[in-house]
Amino acid sequence: MNKNIVIIGGGPAGMEAASQLMLLGYSPIIIEKTSALGGHLARWDRLFPDRGSAKGLLDELFVKLNGANIFYDSDIVSINRLNDSYNIILSNGITVIAQAVLIATGFNLFDARKKEEYGYGIYNKVITNADLEAYFKNGSDERIDESGIKRIGFVHCVGSRDEKACNRQCSKVCCITALKQAIELKEKFPESVIYCFYMDLRLFGRKYEDIYLSAQKDFGIRFIRGRVSEASEDIDGNVVIKAEDTLTGKPLKVTLDLLVLMAGMSANPDANRLAGMLSLAIDSDGFLQSYDNVAYIHRSKKKGIFYAGTCTGPKTLPETLSEARSAALDIHNYLKNSDYGG
């Protein structure tokens, strides 16, 4: 095909969309701001619900890109609408003319330091879900004393469903990720006691409820409905948290050897910067606003601009990959029919 398609973002959405477009006969161009593909997936160890290898999936996605055009360490300097295409200037000086653009810039992990009451970046034994996953992947973290792990706490909804954090949306994957990680820690430290502090559990996916029941029955993980109000550090360097069990109405004070904050998804500033260049709509939650939230979530209201993945809101990995395939087909139809699209 002699029509250029530029994909901005080399995470799972961008990779899957590119491979599907290649099957359709195109030679898409992936623009990735870092030196490697994969996005957040490249930093993950195991995936829910079956705890499959994140690297295994990433390798599968990468193999399908054999022969693809990829610009690494490249950012968008400017992007302008021409008659029937877009003029894109990259930070490396290259200019690309594209008939269609797919934005797949993904999400940012909420900065847990903004929730100062939990002590991330202040207390040594407070980490995030991403830190814990890196520990599983790499095998070490100086903040985790493997010889002294007896009590572990998980705090759900850190930076999600939080008006003060300016993130009202549910991040969709935090509950099931907490269950996965709690089970993995229990397997690694079988004598430990693990608590999950939650507002309410949102386990909508297939097998998710089974994992929750197994976490309770098979692994003895304790679920406490109630927000953690604050964390502090005792003289021994352990984390002391205060919370309320809203089911019993009793206050709690628990000393932990490790506190894990389930940081949620936030809008990526890179997507918002592109939105400014192209006059794209941004929704109230900070994510890009798609054509609609039912049939065309992968399409913008600007002709020739398409979306895939979490640039339009929190999604699971299967949803992201499915949306990338749908976007690729939509782009194909758009390019075949000049009057197609909004």
From TrEMBL:
<feature type="domain" description="FAD/NAD(P)-binding">
    <location>
        <begin position="4"/>
        <end position="111"/>
    </location>
</feature>
<dbReference type="Pfam" id="PF07992">
    <property type="entry name" value="Pyr_redox_2"/>
</dbReference>
<keyword id="KW-0411">Iron-sulfur</keyword>
<keyword id="KW-0408">Iron</keyword>
<protein>
    <submittedName>
        <fullName>CoB--CoM heterodisulfide reductase iron-sulfur subunit A family protein</fullName>
    </submittedName>
</protein>
<dbReference type="InterPro" id="IPR036188">
    <property type="entry name" value="FAD/NAD-bd_sf"/>
</dbReference>
<keyword id="KW-0560">Oxidoreductase</keyword>
<dbReference type="InterPro" id="IPR039650">
    <property type="entry name" value="HdrA-like"/>
</dbReference>
<dbReference type="InterPro" id="IPR023753">
    <property type="entry name" value="FAD/NAD-binding_dom"/>
</dbReference>
<keyword id="KW-0004">4Fe-4S</keyword>
<dbReference type="GO" id="GO:0016491">
    <property type="term" value="F:oxidoreductase activity"/>
</dbReference>
<keyword id="KW-0479">Metal-binding</keyword>
<dbReference type="GO" id="GO:0046872">
    <property type="term" value="F:metal ion binding"/>
</dbReference>
<dbReference type="GO" id="GO:0051539">
    <property type="term" value="F:4 iron, 4 sulfur cluster binding"/>
</dbReference>
